[in-house]
Write a structure and sequence with these properties.
With 202 residues, the chain is α+β, with helices and mostly antiparallel strands. It contains eight helices and seven strands. The N terminus is likely disordered.
Length: 202
Amino acid sequence: MSCDSFDFEVDATADEAARIEAIAQHYREIIKLIGENPEREGLLKTPMRAAKALWFATQGYRMSPSDVLRQAIFEYAGSQVVVVRDIEFYSFCEHHILPFFGTVSIGYIPDGNMIGLSKLPRLVNAIARKLQVQERLTAEICKEVYETLSAKGVIVVCHANHLCMQMRGVEKQLSSTDTIDYVGRFADDTNLRAEFFAMTRK
């Protein structure tokens, strides 16, 4: 397999290309171990396709959440709650390496600075696209916004479906999980939390 054949959306370094080729070789062995034939027509390109997909889906290991936010911090004189709701995310359960996915809603109270709106979804990607658990994902997003922006308060709610519960184990297709984390004024003021939940209610 040649590195020249990779169809990356961005250029891969020689080291990254070598790592992806190594992942593809491991996928080829896994295909053999589960009882399939990696040489049959439908599977010939599967190891490399799977390696590229995994590399893309775990790009959070190659991103800095704080750098993502610092790219677009602006002065802001107001002090009211800013909410970005229903940010889609995709992640991998670190226990079974199966996907979990859903939405994240973030609210924060500026303290002289605000974040460009597109950076919050990028932050979610940077934290979600790695091996994760939903509880830590929620807490890390909250902590990153609070510390990098020096906000007066931050609240994060995550709603997700987990394939490790739906396609294996208990196989409960309609189950979902909600997690919440908050700091600063949101921790101290139940009315602020209620305002956030009212703004994010569908």
